[in-house]
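INFO batch 0412 | record 1 of 1 | parsing
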Amino acid sequence: MSRPFQTRWRDRIIHFDEMERSSIQATEAKYKSQTASPGPEAVLFSAKTAFGSAVVAEAVPAEDHTVWVAGFESYSLDHRYYEIAHESLKDQFAHYYLLLKDVSGATRAIQPFLVVSQDLATGTPAVFRSILGHIRGRFPGFLKLRMLMVGCSAGEGDIVRESRSGDIEWTVDALGKSLMPVAQHFKAMLIVFKDFPSHYRPSLDRLGTSGYKRIPSMPATKLCLDFPDFEAFLKTRVSYSIRKNLRRKFRKTEGDHRTGFEVVTDLTPYIDEVYPLYRQTLDRSQLKFEELTKSYLCELGRRMPERAKFFIWRQEGKIVAFASTIIHNGVLRDNYIGLDYSVALAYHLYFVTLRDTIVWALQNQIHTYHSAPLNYDPKYHFRMELEPLDLYVRAPNGLFNQLFKRILPLLEPTRYDPIVPKFPNASELW
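INFO prediction complete | emitting C-alpha coordinates
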Protein backbone atom coordinates (compact mmCIF):
# COMPACT_ATOMS: atom_id res chain seq x y z
CA MET A 1 0.00 0.00 0.00
CA SER A 2 1.52 3.30 -1.03
CA ARG A 3 1.96 6.20 1.33
CA PRO A 4 -0.54 8.46 -0.49
CA PHE A 5 -3.25 5.81 -0.12
CA GLN A 6 -2.41 5.44 3.59
CA THR A 7 -2.76 9.16 4.00
CA ARG A 8 -6.11 9.24 2.24
CA TRP A 9 -7.24 6.25 4.33
CA ARG A 10 -6.23 7.89 7.60
CA ASP A 11 -7.79 11.22 6.69
CA ARG A 12 -11.14 9.59 5.95
CA ILE A 13 -11.34 7.42 9.06
CA ILE A 14 -13.98 8.53 11.59
CA HIS A 15 -13.22 8.11 15.29
CA PHE A 16 -15.81 7.79 16.74
CA ASP A 17 -56.48 -6.87 11.15
CA GLU A 18 -59.53 -4.20 11.84
CA MET A 19 -58.94 -3.54 15.51
CA GLU A 20 -55.35 -2.90 14.75
CA ARG A 21 -56.16 -0.50 11.93
CA SER A 22 -58.56 1.51 14.08
CA SER A 23 -55.97 1.75 16.82
CA ILE A 24 -53.40 3.02 14.36
CA GLN A 25 -55.82 5.63 13.08
CA ALA A 26 -56.66 6.69 16.64
CA THR A 27 -53.04 7.51 17.42
CA GLU A 28 -52.03 8.78 13.98
CA ALA A 29 -53.32 12.34 14.33
CA LYS A 30 -51.70 12.72 17.74
CA TYR A 31 -48.21 11.88 16.59
CA LYS A 32 -48.25 12.94 12.94
CA SER A 33 -46.95 16.38 13.75
CA GLN A 34 -43.86 14.97 15.46
CA THR A 35 -42.42 13.67 12.19
CA ALA A 36 -44.12 15.78 9.55
CA SER A 37 -42.42 18.92 8.41
CA PRO A 38 -44.30 21.33 6.13
CA GLY A 39 -41.42 23.37 4.78
CA PRO A 40 -38.29 22.93 2.69
CA GLU A 41 -36.04 23.58 5.69
CA ALA A 42 -36.03 19.84 6.48
CA VAL A 43 -34.40 18.99 3.13
CA LEU A 44 -30.66 18.42 3.47
CA PHE A 45 -29.62 17.08 0.09
CA SER A 46 -31.06 16.34 -3.32
CA ALA A 47 -29.58 14.47 -6.29
CA LYS A 48 -30.84 13.66 -9.78
CA THR A 49 -30.85 9.95 -10.58
CA ALA A 50 -31.71 7.67 -13.48
CA PHE A 51 -35.19 7.04 -12.04
CA GLY A 52 -35.92 10.62 -10.96
CA SER A 53 -34.40 12.12 -7.85
CA ALA A 54 -33.37 11.29 -4.30
CA VAL A 55 -34.05 13.78 -1.51
CA VAL A 56 -32.66 13.51 2.02
CA ALA A 57 -34.80 15.09 4.74
CA GLU A 58 -34.65 15.30 8.51
CA ALA A 59 -38.40 14.71 8.72
CA VAL A 60 -41.20 13.43 6.52
CA PRO A 61 -42.85 16.34 4.69
CA ALA A 62 -46.53 16.72 5.52
CA GLU A 63 -47.58 16.23 1.90
CA ASP A 64 -45.80 12.84 1.81
CA HIS A 65 -47.09 11.50 5.11
CA THR A 66 -49.58 9.15 3.40
CA VAL A 67 -46.74 7.61 1.37
CA TRP A 68 -44.69 7.20 4.55
CA VAL A 69 -47.49 5.43 6.43
CA ALA A 70 -48.51 3.15 3.54
CA GLY A 71 -44.96 2.03 2.87
CA PHE A 72 -44.65 0.19 6.19
CA GLU A 73 -48.26 -0.66 7.12
CA SER A 74 -47.92 -4.39 6.31
CA TYR A 75 -44.83 -4.84 8.48
CA SER A 76 -44.69 -5.62 12.19
CA LEU A 77 -42.37 -2.64 12.64
CA ASP A 78 -44.53 -0.02 10.98
CA HIS A 79 -43.92 3.71 10.52
CA ARG A 80 -44.77 4.40 14.18
CA TYR A 81 -41.95 2.14 15.32
CA TYR A 82 -39.45 4.03 13.20
CA GLU A 83 -40.70 7.32 14.61
CA ILE A 84 -40.29 6.03 18.17
CA ALA A 85 -36.77 4.81 17.46
CA HIS A 86 -35.79 8.04 15.74
CA GLU A 87 -37.03 10.23 18.58
CA SER A 88 -35.82 8.13 21.52
CA LEU A 89 -32.40 7.19 20.09
CA LYS A 90 -31.55 10.53 18.49
CA ASP A 91 -28.57 11.02 20.81
CA GLN A 92 -26.97 7.82 19.49
CA PHE A 93 -27.73 7.96 15.77
CA ALA A 94 -28.38 10.58 13.13
CA HIS A 95 -31.66 9.47 11.55
CA TYR A 96 -32.82 10.64 8.12
CA TYR A 97 -35.47 9.94 5.49
CA LEU A 98 -34.64 9.23 1.86
CA LEU A 99 -37.50 10.41 -0.37
CA LEU A 100 -37.37 8.53 -3.65
CA LYS A 101 -39.12 10.51 -6.38
CA ASP A 102 -39.91 9.56 -9.96
CA VAL A 103 -39.28 11.74 -13.02
CA SER A 104 -42.59 13.56 -12.46
CA GLY A 105 -41.43 14.64 -9.00
CA ALA A 106 -43.92 12.42 -7.13
CA THR A 107 -42.64 10.70 -4.00
CA ARG A 108 -42.96 6.96 -4.57
CA ALA A 109 -41.22 5.61 -1.43
CA ILE A 110 -39.61 6.90 1.76
CA GLN A 111 -36.79 4.76 3.13
CA PRO A 112 -35.37 5.62 6.57
CA PHE A 113 -31.64 5.44 7.17
CA LEU A 114 -29.08 6.46 9.76
CA VAL A 115 -25.49 7.61 9.88
CA VAL A 116 -23.23 6.19 12.56
CA SER A 117 -19.55 5.50 13.28
CA GLN A 118 -19.00 1.80 13.91
CA ASP A 119 -16.07 -0.38 14.96
CA LEU A 120 -15.77 -3.20 12.41
CA ALA A 121 -13.72 -5.28 14.84
CA THR A 122 -16.67 -5.75 17.20
CA GLY A 123 -17.38 -9.48 17.41
CA THR A 124 -13.97 -10.62 16.20
CA PRO A 125 -11.77 -12.86 18.40
CA ALA A 126 -9.72 -11.37 21.22
CA VAL A 127 -6.48 -12.26 19.41
CA PHE A 128 -7.52 -10.20 16.40
CA ARG A 129 -8.55 -7.27 18.61
CA SER A 130 -5.21 -7.46 20.40
CA ILE A 131 -3.29 -7.21 17.13
CA LEU A 132 -5.61 -4.44 16.05
CA GLY A 133 -4.82 -2.58 19.26
CA HIS A 134 -1.20 -2.25 18.19
CA ILE A 135 -2.22 -0.90 14.79
CA ARG A 136 -4.56 1.59 16.43
CA GLY A 137 -1.69 2.83 18.49
CA ARG A 138 -0.53 4.54 15.32
CA PHE A 139 -3.84 4.79 13.44
CA PRO A 140 -6.50 5.21 16.17
CA GLY A 141 -9.39 5.17 13.72
CA PHE A 142 -8.36 2.01 11.85
CA LEU A 143 -11.51 -0.05 11.03
CA LYS A 144 -13.69 2.53 12.80
CA LEU A 145 -15.72 3.78 9.89
CA ARG A 146 -18.49 6.27 9.29
CA MET A 147 -21.40 4.34 7.79
CA LEU A 148 -24.69 5.05 6.10
CA MET A 149 -27.05 2.31 7.26
CA VAL A 150 -30.33 1.56 5.52
CA GLY A 151 -32.82 0.06 7.96
CA CYS A 152 -33.81 0.45 11.59
CA SER A 153 -31.60 1.54 14.46
CA ALA A 154 -33.50 -0.72 16.91
CA GLY A 155 -34.39 -3.88 15.05
CA GLU A 156 -34.49 -5.63 11.71
CA GLY A 157 -34.81 -3.73 8.47
CA ASP A 158 -37.58 -3.69 5.89
CA ILE A 159 -37.66 -2.30 2.37
CA VAL A 160 -40.41 0.26 2.10
CA ARG A 161 -43.17 -0.60 -0.38
CA GLU A 162 -43.54 1.68 -3.37
CA SER A 163 -46.76 3.71 -3.36
CA ARG A 164 -48.19 2.74 -6.78
CA SER A 165 -47.65 -1.00 -7.11
CA GLY A 166 -47.21 -1.84 -3.43
CA ASP A 167 -44.09 -3.91 -4.12
CA ILE A 168 -40.43 -3.33 -3.31
CA GLU A 169 -38.76 -3.83 -6.70
CA TRP A 170 -38.92 -0.17 -7.71
CA THR A 171 -37.60 0.82 -4.28
CA VAL A 172 -34.64 -1.55 -4.47
CA ASP A 173 -33.67 -0.30 -7.92
CA ALA A 174 -34.02 3.31 -6.79
CA LEU A 175 -31.90 2.69 -3.71
CA GLY A 176 -29.21 1.06 -5.82
CA LYS A 177 -28.92 4.22 -7.89
CA SER A 178 -29.32 6.86 -5.17
CA LEU A 179 -27.29 5.72 -2.18
CA MET A 180 -23.87 6.45 -3.66
CA PRO A 181 -24.33 10.24 -3.91
CA VAL A 182 -26.09 10.28 -0.53
CA ALA A 183 -23.20 8.43 1.10
CA GLN A 184 -20.71 10.79 -0.48
CA HIS A 185 -22.71 13.76 0.83
CA PHE A 186 -22.46 12.38 4.38
CA LYS A 187 -18.78 11.42 3.88
CA ALA A 188 -19.62 7.81 4.73
CA MET A 189 -16.95 5.22 3.97
CA LEU A 190 -19.45 2.35 3.85
CA ILE A 191 -23.08 1.82 2.81
CA VAL A 192 -24.75 -0.96 4.79
CA PHE A 193 -28.21 -2.52 4.47
CA LYS A 194 -28.57 -3.51 8.12
CA ASP A 195 -30.18 -6.76 9.31
CA PHE A 196 -32.57 -7.59 6.47
CA PRO A 197 -34.40 -10.95 6.75
CA SER A 198 -33.38 -13.52 4.17
CA HIS A 199 -36.78 -13.41 2.39
CA TYR A 200 -35.51 -10.16 0.82
CA ARG A 201 -32.67 -11.96 -0.95
CA PRO A 202 -34.47 -12.41 -4.33
CA SER A 203 -34.76 -8.61 -4.48
CA LEU A 204 -31.71 -7.36 -2.62
CA ASP A 205 -29.24 -9.75 -4.24
CA ARG A 206 -29.65 -7.61 -7.36
CA LEU A 207 -27.54 -5.03 -5.54
CA GLY A 208 -24.55 -7.23 -6.37
CA THR A 209 -24.48 -5.70 -9.83
CA SER A 210 -23.95 -2.33 -8.13
CA GLY A 211 -20.92 -3.52 -6.18
CA TYR A 212 -22.61 -4.69 -2.97
CA LYS A 213 -21.58 -7.85 -1.16
CA ARG A 214 -23.95 -9.86 1.05
CA ILE A 215 -22.66 -11.29 4.33
CA PRO A 216 -24.47 -12.73 7.36
CA SER A 217 -25.38 -10.60 10.33
CA MET A 218 -26.00 -12.22 13.70
CA PRO A 219 -29.19 -14.22 13.03
CA ALA A 220 -32.53 -14.12 14.79
CA THR A 221 -34.18 -17.37 15.86
CA LYS A 222 -37.71 -18.75 15.64
CA LEU A 223 -39.84 -21.52 17.07
CA CYS A 224 -42.98 -22.70 15.28
CA LEU A 225 -45.65 -23.12 17.96
CA ASP A 226 -47.29 -26.17 16.37
CA PHE A 227 -47.67 -28.13 19.62
CA PRO A 228 -50.61 -28.06 22.08
CA ASP A 229 -48.74 -27.07 25.23
CA PHE A 230 -45.29 -26.66 26.71
CA GLU A 231 -45.19 -30.18 28.15
CA ALA A 232 -45.83 -31.61 24.69
CA PHE A 233 -43.01 -29.43 23.39
CA LEU A 234 -40.60 -30.84 25.97
CA LYS A 235 -41.60 -34.43 25.24
CA THR A 236 -41.45 -34.22 21.45
CA ARG A 237 -38.79 -31.63 20.65
CA VAL A 238 -36.23 -31.65 23.43
CA SER A 239 -33.74 -34.39 24.25
CA TYR A 240 -34.16 -36.39 27.46
CA SER A 241 -31.11 -34.89 29.14
CA ILE A 242 -32.09 -31.31 28.30
CA ARG A 243 -35.71 -31.97 29.31
CA LYS A 244 -34.55 -33.31 32.66
CA ASN A 245 -32.25 -30.36 33.16
CA LEU A 246 -34.98 -27.84 32.30
CA ARG A 247 -37.47 -29.41 34.70
CA ARG A 248 -34.90 -29.22 37.47
CA LYS A 249 -34.41 -25.54 36.71
CA PHE A 250 -38.13 -24.83 36.69
CA ARG A 251 -38.72 -26.59 40.03
CA LYS A 252 -36.40 -24.12 41.68
CA THR A 253 -38.81 -21.27 40.89
CA GLU A 254 -41.92 -23.09 42.10
CA GLY A 255 -41.13 -23.20 45.83
CA ASP A 256 -40.72 -20.41 48.34
CA HIS A 257 -39.33 -18.12 45.66
CA ARG A 258 -42.06 -18.74 43.10
CA THR A 259 -41.75 -16.57 40.02
CA GLY A 260 -45.03 -15.25 38.60
CA PHE A 261 -45.62 -12.99 35.62
CA GLU A 262 -48.11 -10.56 34.15
CA VAL A 263 -48.51 -9.03 30.70
CA VAL A 264 -49.16 -5.29 30.29
CA THR A 265 -49.49 -2.93 27.35
CA ASP A 266 -48.09 0.20 28.97
CA LEU A 267 -44.73 -0.08 30.71
CA THR A 268 -44.73 3.50 31.98
CA PRO A 269 -45.84 2.72 35.58
CA TYR A 270 -43.00 0.20 35.90
CA ILE A 271 -40.26 1.90 33.94
CA ASP A 272 -38.12 2.96 36.88
CA GLU A 273 -38.02 -0.65 38.11
CA VAL A 274 -37.48 -2.44 34.81
CA TYR A 275 -35.05 -0.11 33.09
CA PRO A 276 -32.13 -0.93 35.45
CA LEU A 277 -32.75 -4.62 34.62
CA TYR A 278 -32.37 -3.86 30.93
CA ARG A 279 -29.14 -2.01 31.66
CA GLN A 280 -27.80 -4.99 33.63
CA THR A 281 -28.44 -7.26 30.65
CA LEU A 282 -27.01 -4.79 28.16
CA ASP A 283 -23.83 -4.33 30.18
CA ARG A 284 -23.19 -8.09 30.05
CA SER A 285 -23.45 -8.26 26.26
CA GLN A 286 -20.27 -8.36 24.20
CA LEU A 287 -22.02 -7.15 21.05
CA LYS A 288 -23.86 -3.85 21.37
CA PHE A 289 -25.35 -1.47 18.85
CA GLU A 290 -28.34 0.47 20.14
CA GLU A 291 -28.96 1.37 23.78
CA LEU A 292 -32.65 1.67 24.55
CA THR A 293 -33.99 4.59 26.54
CA LYS A 294 -36.90 4.86 28.95
CA SER A 295 -38.70 6.93 26.34
CA TYR A 296 -38.44 4.11 23.77
CA LEU A 297 -40.04 1.58 26.12
CA CYS A 298 -42.80 3.92 27.25
CA GLU A 299 -43.69 5.18 23.78
CA LEU A 300 -44.10 1.65 22.41
CA GLY A 301 -47.14 1.11 24.63
CA ARG A 302 -48.52 4.59 24.07
CA ARG A 303 -48.30 4.65 20.28
CA MET A 304 -48.56 0.94 19.43
CA PRO A 305 -50.96 -0.39 22.08
CA GLU A 306 -52.41 -3.09 19.82
CA ARG A 307 -48.96 -4.57 19.14
CA ALA A 308 -46.74 -3.86 22.15
CA LYS A 309 -46.81 -6.36 25.01
CA PHE A 310 -44.53 -6.27 28.04
CA PHE A 311 -43.98 -9.35 30.22
CA ILE A 312 -43.09 -8.67 33.86
CA TRP A 313 -41.85 -11.35 36.26
CA ARG A 314 -41.83 -10.96 40.05
CA GLN A 315 -40.44 -12.79 43.04
CA GLU A 316 -42.07 -11.87 46.36
CA GLY A 317 -43.48 -8.74 44.76
CA LYS A 318 -40.17 -7.52 43.37
CA ILE A 319 -39.72 -7.25 39.59
CA VAL A 320 -36.83 -9.52 38.60
CA ALA A 321 -37.27 -9.73 34.83
CA PHE A 322 -39.12 -8.17 31.93
CA ALA A 323 -39.39 -8.60 28.17
CA SER A 324 -40.44 -6.17 25.45
CA THR A 325 -42.34 -7.81 22.58
CA ILE A 326 -44.20 -6.86 19.40
CA ILE A 327 -47.12 -9.02 18.20
CA HIS A 328 -48.37 -8.85 14.63
CA ASN A 329 -50.09 -11.36 12.30
CA GLY A 330 -49.61 -14.28 14.68
CA VAL A 331 -45.92 -13.69 15.31
CA LEU A 332 -44.56 -12.71 18.72
CA ARG A 333 -41.26 -10.88 18.37
CA ASP A 334 -39.30 -11.11 21.62
CA ASN A 335 -37.03 -8.11 21.13
CA TYR A 336 -35.46 -7.02 24.42
CA ILE A 337 -35.10 -8.49 27.88
CA GLY A 338 -33.93 -7.34 31.28
CA LEU A 339 -32.88 -9.54 34.19
CA ASP A 340 -31.96 -8.94 37.81
CA TYR A 341 -28.63 -10.72 37.94
CA SER A 342 -28.61 -10.86 41.73
CA VAL A 343 -31.11 -13.73 41.32
CA ALA A 344 -31.21 -14.46 37.57
CA LEU A 345 -28.52 -17.11 37.47
CA ALA A 346 -29.51 -18.85 40.69
CA TYR A 347 -33.16 -19.14 39.58
CA HIS A 348 -32.52 -19.63 35.85
CA LEU A 349 -34.70 -16.66 35.01
CA TYR A 350 -33.87 -16.61 31.32
CA PHE A 351 -35.27 -20.13 30.87
CA VAL A 352 -38.30 -19.20 32.99
CA THR A 353 -39.03 -16.14 30.87
CA LEU A 354 -38.67 -18.15 27.69
CA ARG A 355 -41.05 -20.86 28.94
CA ASP A 356 -43.68 -18.40 30.18
CA THR A 357 -43.60 -16.37 26.99
CA ILE A 358 -44.11 -19.49 24.87
CA VAL A 359 -46.96 -20.69 27.12
CA TRP A 360 -48.68 -17.29 26.88
CA ALA A 361 -48.21 -17.25 23.12
CA LEU A 362 -49.82 -20.70 22.80
CA GLN A 363 -52.78 -19.53 24.89
CA ASN A 364 -53.22 -16.46 22.68
CA GLN A 365 -53.22 -18.15 19.25
CA ILE A 366 -49.68 -17.08 18.34
CA HIS A 367 -48.20 -19.41 15.72
CA THR A 368 -44.53 -18.29 15.74
CA TYR A 369 -42.13 -17.17 18.42
CA HIS A 370 -39.38 -14.95 17.02
CA SER A 371 -36.39 -13.98 19.11
CA ALA A 372 -33.85 -11.24 18.51
CA PRO A 373 -30.19 -12.14 17.86
CA LEU A 374 -27.58 -13.27 20.41
CA ASN A 375 -27.71 -15.57 23.46
CA TYR A 376 -27.84 -18.64 21.22
CA ASP A 377 -27.06 -21.42 23.71
CA PRO A 378 -30.50 -21.65 25.39
CA LYS A 379 -32.19 -21.17 22.03
CA TYR A 380 -30.20 -24.06 20.60
CA HIS A 381 -31.28 -26.29 23.48
CA PHE A 382 -34.89 -25.20 22.93
CA ARG A 383 -34.50 -26.50 19.36
CA MET A 384 -35.16 -23.19 17.68
CA GLU A 385 -34.20 -22.49 14.08
CA LEU A 386 -31.98 -19.71 12.89
CA GLU A 387 -33.63 -16.92 10.95
CA PRO A 388 -30.85 -15.44 8.82
CA LEU A 389 -30.37 -11.69 8.74
CA ASP A 390 -28.27 -10.18 5.98
CA LEU A 391 -25.96 -7.24 5.54
CA TYR A 392 -25.40 -5.76 2.09
CA VAL A 393 -22.23 -3.71 2.08
CA ARG A 394 -20.25 -1.56 -0.33
CA ALA A 395 -17.88 1.36 -0.15
CA PRO A 396 -18.53 4.49 -2.23
CA ASN A 397 -14.86 4.52 -3.19
CA GLY A 398 -14.42 1.95 -5.96
CA LEU A 399 -10.80 1.02 -5.16
CA PHE A 400 -11.50 0.68 -1.46
CA ASN A 401 -14.63 -1.35 -2.25
CA GLN A 402 -12.62 -3.94 -4.18
CA LEU A 403 -10.19 -4.31 -1.29
CA PHE A 404 -12.86 -4.27 1.40
CA LYS A 405 -14.99 -6.97 -0.28
CA ARG A 406 -12.03 -9.34 0.12
CA ILE A 407 -11.58 -8.82 3.85
CA LEU A 408 -15.28 -8.44 4.73
CA PRO A 409 -15.90 -12.19 5.28
CA LEU A 410 -13.16 -12.15 7.94
CA LEU A 411 -14.97 -9.42 9.85
CA GLU A 412 -18.50 -10.83 9.82
CA PRO A 413 -19.32 -11.91 13.40
CA THR A 414 -21.16 -15.22 12.87
CA ARG A 415 -17.95 -17.03 11.96
CA TYR A 416 -16.62 -16.49 15.49
CA ASP A 417 -19.71 -17.56 17.47
CA PRO A 418 -19.26 -21.08 18.90
CA ILE A 419 -22.99 -21.96 19.05
CA VAL A 420 -24.38 -20.69 15.74
CA PRO A 421 -22.69 -23.43 13.61
CA LYS A 422 -24.42 -26.09 15.73
CA PHE A 423 -27.89 -25.15 14.51
CA PRO A 424 -29.14 -27.59 11.84
CA ASN A 425 -29.87 -24.77 9.37
CA ALA A 426 -26.68 -22.80 9.97
CA SER A 427 -25.76 -23.21 6.29
CA GLU A 428 -28.68 -20.90 5.40
CA LEU A 429 -26.78 -17.91 6.81
CA TRP A 430 -24.88 -17.60 3.52
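INFO post-check: Confidence is low (pLDDT under 50) at residues 1-38.
INFO record closed
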